[in-house]
Amino acid sequence: MMVRSHAPSSLMGIAVFAALLFLLHPSSAQLSSNFYATSCPNVSNIVQTVIQQALQSDPRITASLLRLHFHDCFVDGCDGSLLLDNSANISSEKDAAPNTNSTRGFDVVDNIKSAIESSCPGTVSCADILALGAQASVVLSGGPSWTVLLGRRDSLTANQAGANTSIPSPFGSLANLTSQFAAVGLDTNDLVTLSGAHTFGRAQCRTFSPRLYNFNASGSPDPTISPSYLTTLQQLCPQNGSGSVLANLDPTTVDTFDNNYYANLQNNQGLLQSDQELFSTSGAATISIVNSFSGNQSAFFQSFAQSMINMGNISPLTGSSGEIRSNCRKVNGS
Ligand code: HEM
Ligand SMILES: *[C@@H]1O[C@H](CO)[C@@H](O)[C@H](O)[C@H]1NC(C)=O
Ligand SMILES: *[C@@H]1O[C@H](CO)[C@@H](O)[C@H](O)[C@H]1NC(C)=O
Ligand SMILES: *[C@@H]1O[C@H](CO)[C@@H](O)[C@H](O)[C@H]1NC(C)=O
Ligand SMILES: *[C@@H]1O[C@H](CO)[C@@H](O)[C@H](O)[C@H]1NC(C)=O
Ligand SMILES: *[C@@H]1O[C@H](CO)[C@@H](O)[C@H](O)[C@H]1NC(C)=O
Ligand SMILES: *[C@@H]1O[C@H](CO)[C@@H](O)[C@H](O)[C@H]1NC(C)=O
Ligand SMILES: *[C@@H]1O[C@H](CO)[C@@H](O)[C@H](O)[C@H]1NC(C)=O
Ligand SMILES: *[C@@H]1O[C@H](CO)[C@@H](O)[C@H](O)[C@H]1NC(C)=O
């Protein structure tokens, strides 16, 4: 009797547990690597070809495209909301503080979209184009490959206020960064791993110049910048100079995706405050991860592939939610 009554109830327990797991991860379960296998089998090649073309005249474009996926995913999930331009109904995320005069590559996203529409009209979302563009960009710059999960759909709205608050600031403390990552389901390992994207690309003087002259209202430079790097940066970014002058995020191998970012941190040559804090915050759990990636590029690459999948899984629209935009800048029919 006892045995017979236990069997169905534990089966029921497993079913309830499985349903709970599903509810906790409702959308990531719906993305798949073969989503366009029959509807647009060549989509990855098309994306890669257009980016390769853009690279001929713009060595920075791969970095810029990787960053677009990040700034899309951190605001209401990976839903292409970042790509919408201003209109009667839309306050563009492009005008939010972390994006204005900073995010770039939107013309290349348009070129990718046009090339895909020629082969498979009305099929591939702009949100998926950003995920595929991020992966192709990393590979074309010497970094790891991974299987991109697909099937995201595009939002009907933008969230400019969300972009102002959800995208981490370069002036934030490690606690700020950690909590903003946690808010989208990413942990400390994801934070250290994905910050390794600062192995290529550029940052404007205004994003780090407080560190050079008056750090944290102390009247002095940030003590965690090495003296020689401080001199170099002060020459590039004079105190009352233009805030829009560009510095390389990785001064050693500027356009290559490698693990030098982590050695830079160990050498007190992190460009942004948010970079150097990962290594210089005393007692932080991030330090040993920096050391591990600095000493082992494979470990970094493996972790980067996994963390990009984690980031790409942030609350996508799937099924019949949202739409497949025909122009990444506009909601269909508007
Ligand atoms: C951890 C928190 C992060 C902060 C505070 C941060 C902040 C910044 C800032 C301030 C810039 C320079 C923007 C400018 O001067 O116009 C930048 C550039 C960049 N960021 Fe981040 N970022 C973070 C995480 C990430 C992540 C997770 C990725 C991607 C996985 C990423 C990829 C990039 C890339 C590739 C660039 C260079 C873009 C270009 O040259 O166009 N960042 N970031
Ligand atoms: C796939 O796309 C690439 C790059 O755009 C193109 O060269 C190739 O011909 C395409 N292949 C097929 C089967 O359409
Ligand atoms: C942004 O760029 C525009 C045009 O280049 C310029 O007029 C404006 O001053 C810039 N704004 C900031 C905050 O740098
Ligand atoms: C977002 O920040 C920008 C730049 O600081 C500001 O102009 C805009 O009004 C803010 N938007 C919202 C909705 O908070
Ligand atoms: C960091 O978090 C604190 C507490 O939430 C907040 O007051 C502060 O503005 C944040 N700083 C940055 C640069 O995001
Ligand atoms: C900035 O200064 C405040 C107040 O003196 C201090 O609590 C904080 O830890 C400092 N932050 C950094 C990153 O040094
Ligand atoms: C920068 O500008 C401020 C305010 O205009 C001025 O007090 C300061 O002397 C200037 N600094 C330099 C290095 O030119
Ligand atoms: C480097 O990391 C890879 C991947 O995690 C691991 O298999 C390998 O054993 C590590 N190598 C060393 C020397 O620790
Ligand atoms: C734009 O807003 C107007 C008025 O709120 C509404 O009637 C219209 O359907 C909206 N258009 C789109 C494309 O969302």
UniProtKB/TrEMBL annotation:
<feature type="binding site">
    <location>
        <position position="79"/>
    </location>
    <ligand>
        <name>Ca(2+) 1</name>
    </ligand>
</feature>
<feature type="domain" description="Plant heme peroxidase family profile">
    <location>
        <begin position="30"/>
        <end position="332"/>
    </location>
</feature>
<feature type="disulfide bond">
    <location>
        <begin position="126"/>
        <end position="328"/>
    </location>
</feature>
<feature type="binding site">
    <location>
        <position position="77"/>
    </location>
    <ligand>
        <name>Ca(2+) 1</name>
    </ligand>
</feature>
<feature type="binding site">
    <location>
        <position position="250"/>
    </location>
    <ligand>
        <name>Ca(2+) 2</name>
    </ligand>
</feature>
<feature type="disulfide bond">
    <location>
        <begin position="73"/>
        <end position="78"/>
    </location>
</feature>
<dbReference type="GO" id="GO:0042744">
    <property type="term" value="P:hydrogen peroxide catabolic process"/>
</dbReference>
<feature type="active site" description="Proton acceptor">
    <location>
        <position position="71"/>
    </location>
</feature>
<comment type="similarity">
    <text>Belongs to the peroxidase family. Classical plant (class III) peroxidase subfamily.</text>
</comment>
<feature type="site" description="Transition state stabilizer">
    <location>
        <position position="67"/>
    </location>
</feature>
<feature type="signal peptide">
    <location>
        <begin position="1"/>
        <end position="29"/>
    </location>
</feature>
<dbReference type="InterPro" id="IPR002016">
    <property type="entry name" value="Haem_peroxidase"/>
</dbReference>
<feature type="disulfide bond">
    <location>
        <begin position="40"/>
        <end position="120"/>
    </location>
</feature>
<dbReference type="GO" id="GO:0006979">
    <property type="term" value="P:response to oxidative stress"/>
</dbReference>
<comment type="function">
    <text>Removal of H(2)O(2), oxidation of toxic reductants, biosynthesis and degradation of lignin, suberization, auxin catabolism, response to environmental stresses such as wounding, pathogen attack and oxidative stress. These functions might be dependent on each isozyme/isoform in each plant tissue.</text>
</comment>
<dbReference type="InterPro" id="IPR033905">
    <property type="entry name" value="Secretory_peroxidase"/>
</dbReference>
<dbReference type="GO" id="GO:0046872">
    <property type="term" value="F:metal ion binding"/>
</dbReference>
<dbReference type="InterPro" id="IPR019794">
    <property type="entry name" value="Peroxidases_AS"/>
</dbReference>
<feature type="binding site">
    <location>
        <position position="168"/>
    </location>
    <ligand>
        <name>substrate</name>
    </ligand>
</feature>
<keyword id="KW-0349">Heme</keyword>
<keyword id="KW-0408">Iron</keyword>
<keyword id="KW-0106">Calcium</keyword>
<dbReference type="InterPro" id="IPR010255">
    <property type="entry name" value="Haem_peroxidase_sf"/>
</dbReference>
<feature type="binding site">
    <location>
        <position position="81"/>
    </location>
    <ligand>
        <name>Ca(2+) 1</name>
    </ligand>
</feature>
<dbReference type="Pfam" id="PF00141">
    <property type="entry name" value="peroxidase"/>
</dbReference>
<keyword id="KW-0575">Peroxidase</keyword>
<feature type="binding site">
    <location>
        <position position="258"/>
    </location>
    <ligand>
        <name>Ca(2+) 2</name>
    </ligand>
</feature>
<feature type="binding site" description="axial binding residue">
    <location>
        <position position="198"/>
    </location>
    <ligand>
        <name>heme b</name>
    </ligand>
</feature>
<dbReference type="InterPro" id="IPR019793">
    <property type="entry name" value="Peroxidases_heam-ligand_BS"/>
</dbReference>
<keyword id="KW-0376">Hydrogen peroxide</keyword>
<dbReference type="InterPro" id="IPR000823">
    <property type="entry name" value="Peroxidase_pln"/>
</dbReference>
<feature type="binding site">
    <location>
        <position position="72"/>
    </location>
    <ligand>
        <name>Ca(2+) 1</name>
    </ligand>
</feature>
<protein>
    <recommendedName>
        <fullName>Peroxidase</fullName>
        <ecNumber>1.11.1.7</ecNumber>
    </recommendedName>
</protein>
<keyword id="KW-1015">Disulfide bond</keyword>
<keyword id="KW-0560">Oxidoreductase</keyword>
<feature type="binding site">
    <location>
        <position position="93"/>
    </location>
    <ligand>
        <name>Ca(2+) 1</name>
    </ligand>
</feature>
<feature type="binding site">
    <location>
        <position position="75"/>
    </location>
    <ligand>
        <name>Ca(2+) 1</name>
    </ligand>
</feature>
<keyword id="KW-0732">Signal</keyword>
<keyword id="KW-0479">Metal-binding</keyword>
<dbReference type="GO" id="GO:0005576">
    <property type="term" value="C:extracellular region"/>
</dbReference>
<keyword id="KW-0325">Glycoprotein</keyword>
<keyword id="KW-0964">Secreted</keyword>
